[in-house]
Amino acid sequence: MLVSLDDIRLAAGRIRSLVRRTPILEVEAGLQPRLYLKCECFQPGGAFKIRGACNMIAQLSPEARSAGVITYSSGNHGQAVALVAEAFKAPAVIVMPETAPRVKVEGVRRYGAEVVFAGTTSTDRKVRAEDIARARGLTIVPPFDHPWIIAGQGTTGLEILEQHSHVRTIFVPMGGGGQVAGVSAAVKRMRSSVRIVGVEPARAARMTASLAAGAPVALATTESIADGLLTLRPGDLTFAHVQAFVDEVVTVTDEEIASAVKWLFQEAKIVTEPSGAATVAAALRVSEPDTVAVVSGGNVDPDAFAGYIR
Question: What does the pLDDT look like over 7-38, one tens digit per residue?
């Protein structure tokens, strides 16, 4: 069942104590019209993922929180779960890929969570997390395919409509689809005329393939500098939201993403990771007034970032 506007509004109240109301920055940089950036890279933990993680963990029983939580994540969701679990004094285990960027691994550990490495794919991580959850009696906090997660991510959409009342188009990045599902559900139920455009890497276009097939499909492999957008398969629930609410799905190349990281640094003075810059890569192709690009995260390895801006 699709999340409701009431679900998202309740989530907004539930997460207020931990989640930052991030700004929308207007960037001119010679662009006509100007581009607006919803800066989720300014969240505690450096990414939008704290919204969904907080909404879910806040709704667990005291007993479940005391037993502990676990998730499987390439990085940003893991950091969010670790941060929120620390705030709720809940033990946390984060299953991460062996290829996870060091900055994200260190971020998870900084919040006191246990890190377990498992393979290189989302399937590897999910299977390992499920095994550990059963063995230790932990509650799984999924990265995207859960109504509480989607509702939490949808609070970004509420803020965009409040902060930029004339918005016409919103570009949202897509990995498993939790953020685009939540944002589109919120925005379309409040203002159906606003266009929602989902953005994914060209070599990790699982939502594009799934929409063409009419059902969620898994890619054999994914590859991109946008490590947070490499899920092999969209969720069943997130796919249903995309079918219902998203107007268009587009892909961007790694070259475009790297250029967008550099553009954000030079023109907006924002440090962002490639996953967070994918929307800007897509938005810079078009010249549409009142366009908002969600900059979803800023957790980037310093050496890699130096390479992008050079």
Answer: 999 999 999 999 999 999 999 877 778 899 99
Distance (Å, whole) CA 66 – CA 170: 39
Overall CATH class of domain 5-47+146-309: alpha beta
User: Could you confirm whether 193 is annotated as catalytic?
Assistant: no
Q: Which helix (H) or strand (E) holds 162?
A: helix 147-163
Residue from 73, 74, 224, 296 carrying the catalytic annotation: 296
Q: Quick one: which of 112, 122, 139 has its CA closest to 175? A: 122
Containing H/E element for 14?
helix 5-14
Identify the active-site residue in 4, 38, 49, 269.
49
Is this structure's pTM higher than 0.85?
A: yes
Provide the residue ranges of all domains of the chain, joining segments of one domain with +.
5-47+146-309, 51-140
Q: Among this protein's residues, is 104 annotated catalytic?
A: no
Using alpha carbons only, give the angle 51, 96, 179 rounded to the nearest 5 degrees: 30
What is the spatial distance between Cα 211 and Cα 302, in angstroms, rounded to a whole number?
Answer: 36
